[in-house]
Amino acid sequence: MKEFTFDLLFQLLPTVLLILGALVLPIVYTRVIRRVLDSLNGHLTQWLYILFDSYVQPTALILRSLLLYLAFAVVPFTFNDAAYSTILRLLFDLAFTFLIGLGAWRSAPICRLLLRSAQNKLDLNTNNTMGRFFENIFRAMVGVFTGIALLDRLGVPVAGLLTGAGVAGLAISLAAQSTLSNLIAGITLVLEHPFGIGDYVILGSSEGTVEDISFRSTRIRTTDNVAVTIENSKVCSEYIQNCNQRSSRLWQFTLGLTYSTSREQLTQLCHDLSEMLKAQPTVRPETVTVTVDKFNDYSIDILVRLYMTTLPYGDFLQEKSRLNLEIMQMVSQSGCDFAFPTTTLDMPEQK
Description:
Elements: H1 2-40, H2 46-54, H3 56-73, H4 82-106, H5 110-118, H6 128-153, H7 158-175, H8 177-192, E1 200-203, E2 206-213, E3 217-221, E4 227-231, H9 232-237, E5 240-242, E6 249-257, H10 263-278, E7 289-295, E8 300-308, H11 313-333
Antiparallel strand pairs: 1-2, 1-5, 2-3, 3-4, 6-8, 7-8
């Protein structure tokens, strides 16, 4: 009996050692590789560092899977036959394929580096959607190819499934043309990059700050804090005005003065108003124009046209308010009056 127990323990010794190795060695491997990568961080290119770092955990799990496979393969039991070995090998192959795909999935941030190296007006600091967009596409492709590899290893006829998926995809595309057009339009917006997240845009009758650009739609936040979601196909069909890409804002308005204003007063007011606006730090002085525009029904209209360098909409409104108050004070000091609609009635004398 003792000899039988001793022989059994001796036969189980390789399995026990392999299981212990499966528990300990991956941990040691991970720590060693992490230290090596940290020491090489300044010497490796960034994309290589991301690739190696993405596969640290998956390769440690592959090592664990290999040791467990060997441990169960050498178990001295009667059921350790050809069918058992086939199932064990299949499980290891599935785990190996999945972990290779997991490493590729974790390396998706490489897409951001490729976009940054393009140097084609790709501002990844403000347009995070672009990075997420291509990372999602990359991960979707990794998931599809990994799934195909797993199904093929399980003996599923992948070719027939792909043929059926193609036919089903054609039927779905015919039934969901609107969704596909929005997807294509979303890809176009990301590639052409007419605006990014945080930009103030005018899209047809809607305007506001861009909050998100997804596969299907674009969401903007209007000035009255309303979130408006617009389908990407409609965004591409509209004239897109990106207010953040301009260097100045146009400000044009009309001052209506009473007809009692003399020519000298008009000339002096136009001169003083022009000089005051040109002296403002937020105004481009070469763009200031102050002219007597036309004779309205109840007022003499002075047209004021200029460009301001204040780009944020809220700051622009504050600057306009400040300048309007100064203009109001200047008109008052010049002895002029603002006109407003009036009606004069001549009553005939009664005989």
